[in-house]
Amino acid sequence: xxxxxxxxxxxxxxxEAFADPAQGFxxxxxxxxxxxxxxxxxxxxxxxxxxxxxGGNIFRGSQAAAMGMERARADYMGMLATVINALAxxxxxxxxxxxxxVMSAIWMQEVAEPFIxxxxxxxxxxxxxxxxxxxxxxxxxSTDTAASVRALEIGAEALLKGTKVDGVYDSDPTKNPDAVRxxxxxxxxxxxxxxxxxxxxxISLCMDNKLPIIVFDLTLDGNIKRVVSGxxxxxxxxxxxxxxx
Length: 245
Known about the structure:
- This protein has 245 residues and is of the alpha/beta class.
- 36% of the residues lie in helices and 19% in strands.
């Protein structure tokens, strides 16, 4: 049975989504162009889509803090890295003819608009892809949490989490060949089992507000369109799962 299609969604992209998998850091132009083409395709269909980007391909605040850097400063540096990724994606979208706006939680008016909820909604209603950068603008909060917050603020019908695997497994499928993939999960099960979907703050926010999360393989071309069209792609995390696996 297919899932319902969506009218407005938020896509969470990790910083690693921008990098060459062989290197794991930096920005790969071909990969960003591929992402832009997929986003432009769903935008042209009339879907309203927003994107939250991470910055781990450039700088990861939690890792720097673990090495002795003051945590708040490290997190702010990580937020700046997300702005770099957002601008790279904006440029790629422009090159494929898609209208796009970057909004930052950190004030930097020369390169991005400040995040204002009403303005973000107007951009979406006009058919623009909206990229949210700078996380929440606060240290100690991940871009997963920022994605949950922004999705709720804009009234998204689902939060899409693009990854390098085809859903959520009961163990790491790259290490355990017998790992089992879930088609559906409940939020509380994700939290209780410590499954690596998003951080616990993000999961709790979605659970409290009944916002479904769909985890899917971003590396497979066309998967974004499949997900938003309602095809059963990846793993759906919601209040009540119809099936365990």
